Amino acid sequence: MTSNTKILLKTKCEGLPKESDFEKIEEEIIEPKEGQIGCESLYLSLDPYLRGKINGRHISGAIFPGDLMAGEAISRVTTSADPAFKKGDLIISHSGWQSHPVININDASKIIGRLPPFLSKVGLFVNPSIDEVKKVINMCHFDLIQFHGDESPTFCEQFNLPYIKAISVESKLSLLEYEKEYESASAFLLDSFSKDVRGGTGNIFDWNLIPQNISKPIIVAGGLNKGNINELFIKNKPYAVDVSSGVESHKGKKDYNMMQEFILGVRNATL
């Protein structure tokens, strides 16, 4: 099992920092408790203010020999003990120089406040309890909610926020009947059906099942890439598209060039 690598201050730095000023230790990875998340650090912040902390002359406090080196980190959630975060989420926290920190959710939630203006914050849930949804809404102040489970219209409506209802499309499903049932939905997200998972299959569904006369905005997901996006827009005129694996060079790794090509494909298809 991977261990948690920590970098501790060994001695105060004289002149330029040297490797001998620090100590690397390996510890067992801790399982998060309720209200915590386990993470893998992707990027660490190395800032000039650390010199002041090491020398005990910084307003935020000092780092003493034997202490974990302080600093901000961008991390990926690996395990979660709170419904506000799921595996794969990217967060910002002051978790210091360590490879696999366990972070209190209140510290990680600050990423919401760092978002630039004019972005909509969307909360995604799969068959949650009422209390779970209310708790996360109060913490993150979402602009809308996306429900991916078997939530009823009554359940979706009670939070007084606009919502998107995800639908797993299969041949026996009537989207027009679904539209009548979920009249209060702001939009539908259509994805491939799978009996094992809710979304993220990387497979396309039969786009001919999308009615031309459906009135609600449609977001299409499932197996989209630069090679088929034009065909989708020829057959249908979705309000938006949802892509993930179609712009990955390998599983979980987004590719900048593939993202650019996909965006260009969408733009060309909508001209």
Describe the secondary structure blueprint for this structure.
Elements: E1 4-9, E2 22-27, E3 36-44, H1 49-54, E4 73-80, E5 90-93, E6 102-104, H2 105-108, E7 122-125, H3 130-140, E8 144-147, H4 153-157, E9 163-169, H5 175-181, E10 187-192, E11 218-221, H6 229-235, E12 240-242, E13 248-250, E14 253-254, H7 256-269
Walkthrough of the structure:
The protein has 271 residues and is of the alpha/beta class. It has two domains: 4-112, Medium-chain alcohol dehydrogenases, catalytic domain (Quinone Oxidoreductase, Chain A, domain 1); 120-269, TIM Barrel. The chain has helices at 49-54, 105-108, 130-140, 153-157, 175-181, 229-235, 256-269, and strands spanning 4-9, 22-27, 36-44, 73-80, 90-93, 102-104, 122-125, 144-147, 163-169, 187-192, 218-221, 240-242, 248-250, 253-254. It has a six-stranded parallel sheet with strand order 7-8-9-10-11-12, with helices on one face. Strands 5-4-3-6 form a four-stranded antiparallel sheet. Strand 7 (122-125), helix 3 (130-140) and strand 8 (144-147) form a beta-alpha-beta unit. Helix 6 (229-235) packs parallel to helix 7. The chain is elongated, with a radius of gyration of 23 Å. 25% of the residues are buried.
